[in-house]
Design brief:
It is a single chain. The protein is α/β, with parallel strands linked by helices. The chain has a single domain, classed as Rossmann fold (3-Layer(aba) Sandwich), CATH 3.40.50.1820. The protein contains ten helices and seven strands. Helix 3 links the parallel strand 4 and strand 5. Helix 3 crosses helix 7, helix 4 crosses helix 6 and helix 5 crosses helix 6. The termini are far apart. The C terminus is likely disordered.
């Protein structure tokens, strides 16, 4: 597994990217935290510079990969952050390593309730394979310009970085696009979490995944939960509203209390 490491602080943060991204999607955040923390940003299997090596692309395989990474570093204490697919994986890891993971940051995890659950199909996989193949045919400048056109508020550096991630993505990643996270699976995960948790959600009308009913469930089952709603943001919260997102993140990470909502 390929990973990036930034900073020299005694406290470690492991940041997990979303599907179709790579570790460098966290670079803007990590650059602002590097004075006080050591940040590790891995490229998940089939993303960035980490090879696919397997045509199996279910969530459990990716969780196993990150478990090996945690064991490799032999962390005593760890903060975990994840966006989208990475947030779902981070939640599972936090439940499996309650003695190590002290704080958990979730950016719009891919969690739905039963009424919103959509089964995928092979046609979606085929469309995603065509999408990935198309990105590889474009130049980096053209792809970055397209992303910038779709998201004019984003920094140009982030548009270019995401373009690189799209071009690096393995075709086999498309297999996972018809495998939404089962409701029972993510509900079981959050019930095991002991770490203080910061949850970010955006506006579903603008593309965010987590809705009010999911937030309600999380508040009822997670005593250490702090919820931040960013109404101007869609799914890409850290790109859509970076200043607001980072202000809350910095405060949460620095807080020494067991219950972050009291800070």
């Amino acid at each position: 597994m390929h990973y990036y490491r930034l900073g020299c602080g005694k406290k470690h943060i492991l940041m997990l990217h979303g599907r179709s991204e790579n570790g460098l999607c966290w670079l803007r955040t990590a650059d602002k935290l590097k004075q006080n923390y050591t940040i590790i940003m891995p490229d998940g299997r089939g993303h960035g510079l980490t090879r696919a090596e397997s045509r199996r692309f279910d969530l459990s395989l990716l969780v196993e990969d990150y478990e090996l990474l945690i064991e490799h570093f032999n962390f005593r204490e760890l903060m975990l952050a994840g966006h989208s697919m990475g947030a779902g994986i981070a939640a599972i890891l936090a439940g499996r390593y309650p003695g190590i993971v002290r704080k958990l940051v979730l950016l719009d995890p891919p969690w739905l309730m039963d009424g919103d659950y959509l089964e995928g199909d092979q046609s979606l996989v085929r469309r995603m394979r065509r999408f990935i193949e198309h990105q590889r045919q474009l130049s980096m400048d053209s792809l970055a310009a397209f992303i910038s056109l779709m998201h004019p508020a984003w920094q140009q550096s982030e548009c270019r970085q995401l373009a690189q991630a799209w071009q690096q993505m393995s075709l086999d990643v498309a297999i996972s696009f018809n495998s939404p996270v089962p409701v029972k699976q993510w509900q079981d995960s959050v019930c095991r979490i002991k770490a203080a948790t910061l949850l970010y959600t955006g506006d579903p009308v603008k593309g965010a995944i987590v809705k009010k009913d999911v937030v309600g469930y999380l508040k009822a089952h997670m005593s250490n939960l702090t919820h931040i709603f960013l109404p101007e943001s869609g799914h890409a919260l850290s790109r859509d509203c970076f200043d607001a997102y980072f202000r809350h993140l910095k405060s949460f990470l620095a807080c020494r209390h067991n219950l972050p909502q009291r800070c």
